[in-house]
Design a protein that fits this description.
The chain contains four helices and five strands, in the order H-H-E-E-E-H-E-E-H. It is α+β, with helices and mostly antiparallel strands and 136 residues long. A five-stranded antiparallel β-sheet has the order 1-2-3-5-4, with helices on one face. It starts with 5 loop residues before the first helix and ends with a helix.
Length: 136
């Protein structure tokens, strides 16, 4: 499994990132399948091929159905989500982790919702720095 930088991610994106096929929908059938570590009926969990801060133990939970916003998740997807959380909790049993997602489409890398799980702890100072860097 090879990890790539966020800069490489930016270089691989089409000029109009919403016009192309969704890479998460395609991820279920292309070479990135090697990054998938858990698969349910409605969700899959994978290592992020382009990890934030080079954190190779960063996971993402992604609904299999193309969903833009969390409020679009259906009952079946919501019922299975606690199983996703339990898998992530067990995966990070050796230490702390935190979760984030962008709920709006602004500044989002893809239109398909996805939850990030990053190992470690984050302080308010780290969060302030990250948000400032993102333009908030």
């Amino acid at each position: 499994m090879k990890f790539h930088s966020r800069e490489e991610w930016e270089l691989t994106q089409p000029e109009d990132q919403w016009a192309e096929k969704c890479s998460f929908c395609e991820q279920q059938s292309w070479e990135a399948k090697e990054y998938i570590i858990w698969e349910g009926k409605y969700w899959f969990i994978c290592h992020n091929k382009f990890p934030v801060l080079w954190l190779e133990n960063q996971l993402m939970a992604i609904p299999k159905r193309h969903v833009k916003m969390a409020y679009e998740l259906n009952n079946e997807e919501m019922i299975e989500y606690p199983t996703v959380e339990k898998f992530v909790y067990d995966f990070y049993a050796w230490g702390s982790y935190f979760t984030f997602m962008r709920e709006s489409l602004q500044n989002r890398s893809l239109e398909h919702i996805h939850y990030h799980f990053l190992p470690g702890k984050i302080s308010y100072n780290d969060l302030e720095y990250f948000l400032k860097k993102q333009g908030f």
